[in-house]
């Protein structure tokens, strides 16, 4: 494996992001592989991805010019992008507390989606993505908030056990038929 470079994604990376997302979407991965390898629950449309790339909210990990992983961030002010889990977060953010403060009263960005190509998992890419996110977004935000489907233990383990995210709540999403763990970590402490 060559050196992995982490940087903000560019518009020319859009097709690679969509291909990696489609390959790993829950509906495209059989149950056995979902349990073993994890999956992406939320599909981000091409239009939304283009907007996020322009605003430097998509972080990519690259081997040479090949995108091998991505992390998509959403700013609190942009949580109206028609993603059901994010809409639900807005509704319940007044009820969730983190370090004694209501989540709604903090500056946070939502981690909308993280995906690592199967061939590159368990190679230290996830911490690199979050370290870059911390540098990019840490000056503007206090916390990174993520949502992990309770049926995706690989992702939950990676975030909570390996990266030290805290579980701060749960909610049921009837549209995606999922129960989400809400996890959080101070952005300045990621990595």
UniProtKB/TrEMBL annotation:
Lineage, broadest ranks: Bacteria, Pseudomonadati, Bacteroidota, Cytophagia, Cytophagales
Keywords, comma-separated and alphabetical: Ribonucleoprotein, Ribosomal protein
Residue ranges occupied by any N-acetyltransferase domain in the UniProt entry: 4-186
Gene3D superfamilies registered for this protein in UniProt: 3.40.630.30
GO MF entries: acyltransferase activity, transferring groups other than amino-acyl groups
Annotated InterPro entries: Acyl_CoA_acyltransferase, GNAT_dom
Gene source species: Aureibacter tunicatorum
Record protein name field: Ribosomal protein S18 acetylase RimI-like enzyme
GO cellular component: ribosome
């Amino acid at each position: 494996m060559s050196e992995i470079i982490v940087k903000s994604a560019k518009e020319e990376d859009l097709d690679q992001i969509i291909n990696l997302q489609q390959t790993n979407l829950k509906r495209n991965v059989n149950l056995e592989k979902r349990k073993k390898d994890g999956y992406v629950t939320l599909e981000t449309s091409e239009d939304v991805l283009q907007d996020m790339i322009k605003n430097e909210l998509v972080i990519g990990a690259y081997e040479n010019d090949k995108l091998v992983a991505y992390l998509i961030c959403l700013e609190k002010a942009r949580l109206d992008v028609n993603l059901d889990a994010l809409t639900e977060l807005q509704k319940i953010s007044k009820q969730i507390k983190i370090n004694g403060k209501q989540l709604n009263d903090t500056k946070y960005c939502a981690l909308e989606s993280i995906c690592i190509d199967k061939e590159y998992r368990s190679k230290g890419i996830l911490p690199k993505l979050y370290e870059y996110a911390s540098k990019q977004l840490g000056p503007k935000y206090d916390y990174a908030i993520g949502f992990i489907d309770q049926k995706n233990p690989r992702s939950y383990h990676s975030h909570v056990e390996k990266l030290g995210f805290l579980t701060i709540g749960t909610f049921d999403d009837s549209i995606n038929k999922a129960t989400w763990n809400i996890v959080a970590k101070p952005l300045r402490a990621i990595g």
